[in-house]
Amino acid sequence: APPPRGSPSGGGSSPGPAASAPPPAISMRSDFEQLETELRAAQMRLLQTEVGLERAKRAAADHEATASALRAQLEGMQTLGRRTLEEERRVDERLEQSMRDAEHHRSRAQALRVEAQAAQDRAAAAEQVGLDFRRQCEAAAVTLTRLIDENNELVERLNRQSLSQDGLRDEMQRMTDHTAAAMAALEALIAAGGGPGSGGGAACGGAPHNTRSSSATAAMASGGDVEAGA
To answer: Where do the record's region annotations for Disordered lie (predicted)?
Structure first.
């Protein structure tokens, strides 16, 4: 047992019988109770430490689970981020392609607008040509109508002239026939009269005159035929 408190650890003169006597039992009991109290306090602290350690372990496990969940969530977010970046890259590529297509479409649209304007100009020119041609056709129709009317009038006039010339030719033909009959009768009279003293010379002299008259009449008839043919 440890030496009681207050006892010398050695050295000096040894005390007398009264000084070396053990302390009372009350003092030892209080020390024991104090030690027990300290032990219980230490055990309580140890228990509290164990409880705190257990709580710390549980908290560490919770933290580890949370960290694992966060790591999984982070990995998922990283995967999603990579997919998002890839999708953004594809969207950028499609956007660039769309911009190139839009530029091509704008160029094509400009060319089509130019072609449409040229087509409109050609259509306007063709319409103007059509209007001019229509006016020319209308003028030609008026001219043709006038020419037809004039032609009809000319035909009617020619028909009237033809009828007049036909009547004139008939009259001249009757005159020619009458003259020929008269000449034939005169020649018959001359032939019937005979001799030189019977006035045959005058009759013969008259015959050439009548012959010339007949020739003139025939010429007039032929001239009438020529005019009718014209």
So the answer is: 1-30, 197-230
Residue with tokens 């020649």: 187
Residue whose structure tokens are 């710390």: 56
For the stretch 60-88, pLDDT in tens is 888 888 888 888 988 998 999 999 999 99
Indicate the DSSP class of residue 194.
-
CA dihedral 90, 91, 93, 96 (to 10 degrees): 180
Least Cα distance to 36 among 44, 25, 24 occurs for 44
Return d(Cα 218, Cα 212) in angstroms, integer: 10
User: What's the distance, CA 181 to chain centroid?
Assistant: 97
Read off the tokens for 204. Answer: 């013969």
The amino acid at 48? Q
**Rounded-to-integer distance, Cα 204 and Cα 37, Å:** 210
What value does the CA radius of gyration of the chain take, rounded to a whole number of Å?
Answer: 81
Give, to the nearest 10 degrees, the angle between helix 25-193 and helix 200-229. 180
Rounded Cα–Cα distance for residues 169 and 158 (Å): 16
How do residues 148-196 score in pLDDT, each as one tens digit?
888 888 888 888 877 777 777 777 787 788 788 888 887 887 777 654 4
